[in-house]
Design goal:
By secondary structure, the protein is mainly beta. It has helices at about 5-10, 25-30, 55-60, 85-95, 275-280; strands at about 40-45, 45-50, 75-80, 85, 100-105, 115-120, 125-135, 135-145, 145, 150, 155-160, 175-180, 190-195, 205-210, 215, 220, 225-230, 235, 250-255, 260-270.
């Protein structure tokens, strides 16, 4: 007899479909890797298997190559290696178009309000300003030495409006496109992301803009590179950003590490599935170098 997960699924009876009032049935199917427990199927060794003999028309239909035991009642089908829900299959089949998160071209859905936060809040002297010039946002300033620390301070730029960000769950990277940049090394800059229920004004997801991810005037940073940090310091054991891309509340940029002047002309930030900025670009990976 098959044992394990089937014992906990509690469908109405073998070889029978649940009633539409059984809202939890498809949740139990998901726990069963998409296999149909109403026909006795259990996920085992990479496929749906059953010891029952199909007698109903429905259970017989699951013997077809299109299903291979996957629960058609819950819109699952067999893709050659696993059960796939119809919605997930459609998302995979549909090409992903770059998703604007912040632009300066007047688009209502991606126009944001921005603010700068610099190290004087911690006794430093760094300064930065932000202004829109045409269809770009220009962030410029100077990182200065914090006298009490004997080390460079920081400058940050971040969104401050309550406008909802689009769901970026099907993307793999965040992109940054500049029209110009100068003054400080690429590695001195970071990107930050805030998400509902996880981050605060001082605790954000952040990732460095390294030459690995940046070429010419483009950076494409994988969402998986973002880690939770508190005041710029890593927080061990933080949750992955990839699980919260439907709940973004804030985007930002920061620079620290070297004293000096800088200027970035930002055209857009966007979600994408294209992570090959360095491969695709013929330009050397020297973004932001003066």
């Amino acid at each position: 007899m098959l044992v394990g997960i089937l014992a906990a699924l509690s469908f109405s009876a073998p070889d029978q479909l649940p009633s539409h009032s059984d809202a939890g049935f498809c949740d139990r199917v998901e726990l069963n890797h998409g296999c149909c427990p109403a026909c006795g199927y259990e996920w085992h060794d990479g496929k749906c298997v059953t010891e029952q003999t199909a007698s109903s028309a429905y259970c017989k239909s699951l013997l077809e190559p299109a299903h291979m035991g996957c629960c058609a009642y819950c819109d699952n089908s067999w893709d050659g290696s696993k059960c796939v829900h119809a919605a997930a299959a459609a998302a995979v089949a549909a090409p992903f178009h770059d998703l604007p998160l912040a632009t300066f071209d007047g688009s209502a859905s991606s126009t944001r309000t921005w603010e700068t936060v610099n190290d004087p809040v911690m006794g430093g002297a760094s300064v930065s300003t932000f202004a829109q010039e045409g269809k770009v946002g220009v962030w410029s300033g100077e990182v200065k030495i914090v006298q009490s620390l004997g080390a460079p301070g920081f400058c940050t730029l971040r969104t401050k409006d309550s406008q909802v960000f689009p769901d970026a769950s099907t993307s793999t990277h965040i992109g940054l496109h500049l029209t110009d940049g100068s003054g400080l090394p690429t590695g001195d800059f970071t990107m930050s992301v805030g998400v509902k229920g996880v981050t605060t004004s001082q605790m954000m997801f952040s990732a460095a803009l390294t030459s690995e991810h940046c070429c010419g005037n483009d950076c494409r940073v994988p969402w998986s590179a973002f880690k939770v940090s508190f005041r710029g310091k890593p927080v061990p054991g933080g949750p992955p950003l990839t699980k919260h891309l439907a709940d973004m509340t804030q985007l930002g940029l920061g620079t620290s590490g070297h004293a000096g002047k800088f200027s970035l002309s930002i055209a857009s930030l966007y979600a994408t599935t294209k992570g090959d900025a360095c491969v695709a670009s013929a330009e050397p990976p020297k973004l932001l170098l003066g």
